[in-house]
Amino acid sequence: MKNILTKKRGQLVYKFGMELLVAAIIFLTFISIAYKFGTGEAILKIRIAEDIGLIIEDMYSISDDIDTYIIYPEDASKFDITIKDNIVSVSSEVNDITSGNYKFVGNSNYPPIDLTIERPKTLYIGKTDGDIIITKDKPDLKKMRCDEIEKPVINSILIDSGIDETGNINKAELANSFAFYLINKLSRDYEVKHARNDINRLDTPLPSFTSILTHEMIGKDAIIGINIGETPDNSNNIVIYHSPDSARKEEVRALSCIILNNIIEEFDEFTTIAIVPKEEFILDNDKISMIIEIGNFANTDSLDLIKKPSTIDSITSTIHGALKDEII
Amino acid sequence: MRLYKKGLSNYTADTVLFYVIFGVVLTVIMVGFMILIYNNIEDTTKIPNDIKEFLPIQRFFSESCFGTDDTNPQKTINWDRFDQETLYSCYSIDEESKKLAFTLELQTPRNIPQIIKTNNWDENHGPNRIKVPINVTVHHNNRKIDGKLIISEQNA
Questions:
Q1: Of the candidates A122, A121, A114, which has an alpha carbon nearest to the alpha carbon of residue A87?
Q2: Residues of B at the A interface, defined by Cβ within 8 angstroms
Q3: Which of A118, A55, A71, A59 is nearest to A90 (CA)?
Q4: Is the pTM of this model over 0.80?
């Protein structure tokens, strides 16, 4: 076989050096790959890609917008996330040989997802306006899209608050404070009544009120329940529930949307706002009926906020304003 | 150690043959290494079958597929939308994809059963799994009728 290089000694040494360099590169590449697998980085990238792909597929299976965002719990801050042609790709560098990829099943009824997010400290995933949103910037929850509707005619309103299924007196008292403020404001424009007749009856269990509530609901145009939320985490949400079977669902959702948008605009402390269908006794299908669940009784920060008279005053003013506003 | 002799290159890595063999061997080792590792971690990152199958089935009942805006959309199907075209649009998948493939058969007492298949369904093979029929409410001509949805799967 013919030699490919000259036989001069210096050149051979130079050639050997080059080969040593190539060998070193190959060796370091193997070490690098082995390290990425050994430390779990490669597996983490695959898992993040799969997670995001599955969340997207899950969003496709939900008919409506979710009007809120999921905060992806895994730390993806070391990686770049690219979504294109229904493939989620998670990589730690350009041309990453150990990038994690997941191909999800697309849905042509949605706009195609084509984005790159570089090293997100937090990853927000949501669905709004019929589009899947994936972003590293905190979404502006004030931008909940409100449907335009004709203003519902409301003359009489029933307010309900007090003891709930937890039987917590302190919580009931706080809910009643909101109700008291709200009744005071609404009574300037509407005929308003508290459902449980005596707002201070806190020791009566909830089922005992059922017949009273049924009676009081007759003839009312709107029913508003006030609850204080309680979940064993650090959330501080405001959620409005409506009946899934309500004939006036669109009106209730539009009103709820305005109320929530106005509240979140004033109180940055609330982490999430949402409008959620729920079956509850007072959520009448033929009336403007909603339950407003405020804050988190189990979260000290939330409790400190919602106990303030200024907060109660402001939130109830917002509810009053949304109801009487001529333009919805 | 002597790597070469004066005036004669017997240095092993000095021939075209060496580079050819070296290139082939390196490629084989590299590919083998990657296959070995990927096989090794496949189980670690494997998505449970139940989840893989749950999400598409949920999607079939959404409004973007065959669902309606009924209050219980999990179990309602719009008869007029239950066709191949809708399935292709809401479950957009390549013909060659190894993702779960589905055949959906909608049965009602009043209609001939409708059978539709995802784009990646392989006609040359039968289903790997046939799920228990799901009781559904079918919206047809402004009426609600009881029906059954039979889902067969490939690549399960």
A1: A114
A2: 3-4, 6-9, 11, 13-17, 19, 26, 33-34, 37, 41, 44-45, 47, 51, 55-56, 58-59, 61-64, 67, 69, 71, 73, 88-93, 97, 99
A3: A118
A4: no
Distance CA(A196)–CA(A205), nearest Å, equals 11
Residue A67 has pLDDT above 80, yes or no: no
Q: Å from A275 to nearest chain B CA?
A: 15
A278 and A169 fall within a common domain:
yes
A33 occurs within a structural domain: no
Question: What is the per-residue pLDDT across A226-251, written as a single tens digit (0 to 9) for each?
Answer: 999 998 888 888 999 999 888 898 89
Pair A172, A220 in one domain: yes
Q: Chain B partners of A51 at a C-beta cutoff of 8 Å?
A: none
- Picking from A22, A105, A110, A252 by the largest number of B CB atoms within 10 A of its own CB, the best residue to mutate is A105
Find the helix packing angle between A169-186 and A309-324, rounded to 10°. 50
Residue A30 lies inside a defined structural domain of this protein: no
Indicate whether A177 and A73 sit together in one domain: no
Question: Which of A96, A114, A139 lies at the terminal end of a domain, its last residue?
Answer: A139
Would you say residue A293 lies in a domain? yes
Counted domains in chain A: 2
Task: Domain ranges for chain B, please list them.
Answer: 1-46, 49-154
